[in-house]
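Example record for the data management plan.
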Amino acid sequence: MTESPDRQTADRPPASPTRRSLLTAGGGLAAAGLAGCLGGAADGELPEPVSLNAEQACDECAMIIQDHPGPTGQIYFSSLHDDRDGPAWFCSGVCAYVYRFNRVAEGATPIGTYLTDYSSIDYELSDDPDPFISPALTAETFRPEAELFAVVGSDVRGAMGADVIPFSVREDAESFASTHGGSVRAASDIDRELIDGVKAASTL
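Corresponding structural encoding:
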């Protein structure tokens, strides 16, 4: 289940390990019977996540997901695009939340949100002054939002700069925050105001 980044953006050096999270949460994704915090599937099942390593473009910012570092996300809605049978997908946690908040404001119904689970992989950090965290793009590296704890306000960056870094094991999130700054909260408690703050930090 380990995944290391196989692509780097041209202006960033190759990642080198500065802290690795060990696999502490066993088992597969509990897809059946789970739902995102903003709605549930009509048949009681949350569709399973997909891999994001096939040149998918972020539905929020249009960047090619696999070309960038950091956490990623995917969201199932009761309806999405006429030409797609699957989730909306995103190059960062920030893009995922912004897109969901905007779609909900327009009347869309989300039935499940998945984010990268950094407790489930060996991740790497670059040597940049503000380190970038490696991506994880295969389906098994995602976990439902309701099972995750997010580090918010750390010095670690993703595709869009400042980001939320999710872990399924709270102790992993707390350890990460103690090293890299930020606070820990349930991923399902993240609201638009908090994401606006994270976005603002990216422009400083």
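Summary line stored alongside the record: The longest helix spans residues 93-105.
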